[in-house]
Amino acid sequence: MEKLYNLEDFLDFFSDIKPSDNAERILRDRYLLKDGEGNYLEHTWEDIARRVSRYIASAETLYTEDIEKIRKVENIYFKLLKSRVFLPNSPTLFNAGKTLDQEIFKKNLEDMTFEDYKNIYNSRSRHNMLSACFVVPLEDSMEGIFDAVKDAALIQKYGGE
Fold it and tell me: In 27-113, which ranges are continuous DSSP H helix?
């Protein structure tokens, strides 16, 4: 195996490795977005990696208006995901950007504008839950117990555990 001297080469090396047939089946069954009729909106792991990386990078609009910095964050995160060197939790893979018009995720990176990223970020709702673990406070009273049960049920409804 040739020596890999930098992160870009390392990620590119692993990006070229095709997922196994079993991994492809799991992607189709569990992770690729579908519309209301069951038609696939995504077709490959690269589609998922683009959707998730773009959605995550949209949070950079809170810290900078420099479009090149935001694009760089998206590109690095995309390469990490595409190479499968880093994988976020399942709720992030399932929920990041799922309520948005999927055309925004098909745009070329260099065509993305600050407003595009801002619109993605501002689209957040409870349906875009990216967390997997939650701590629910529990008060020592009947009301407190049932409030905790209700809160836990709502968290699970939207993908949390």
Answer: 45-57, 67-83, 90-95
